[in-house]
Every structure is written in C-alpha cells, then in structure tokens.
Input
Amino acid sequence: MHSELGKIVSRLWPRIEASGMRGRTVTLKVKFADFTLITRSRSVPRAISQLSTLEEMGRDLLDGEMPLPKGARLLGLGIHNLEPADRDDGVSAAQFALAI
Output
C-alpha cells in the first residue's frame, strides 16, 4: 500500500506544482472490494509546500487504517483547502481541490 501511495504522490505533486496552488488538507480515500469507501483527512495550519510533507501526511493517514479490514480495490489521495502558492497570510482566497 505504501508503494502505491508513493506512486500516487509522485503523480499528484506535479499537478499541484503546475496549478500554482498549495493546500492545507490532505485526504486519503480507500475503496474496498465490496465498494464501501472510507475517507480520512488531516489539515495543517500552513499550506503544504513540499512533496515530502504531502507524502508523510498521506502515509500517516494510511498507517492509521492499517491493517485494512478487507481487500482494497482503490486508493486515492487529494489535497484541498487550496490557496495561491505565493500567498503568505494563511487565509484561503477560494476553495479548490486537486486529487488523483
């Protein structure tokens, strides 16, 4: 699961960079073989500006659910509560979302 999460982060981060935005909330989604879904999220006071922070937060969310109660068929990670990357006052200008 950690390996797959790493692949997701490596695809998500370039999209975040290209958007010129940074987010404060990371959301993990796990869909199970029976199509039930769980989501877990964590927010931080300042926007995430480093790939390593995004990866660490994603791993922490996943670790909090391990071992999974049943087989997973889908794993997703998203970043929300976005604000412009050059913004330094910590207040969101608008609500956006990027996910993969």
In short: Residues 90-96 have pLDDT under 50 and may be disordered. The beta strands are 21-32, 37-43, 72-84, 97-99.
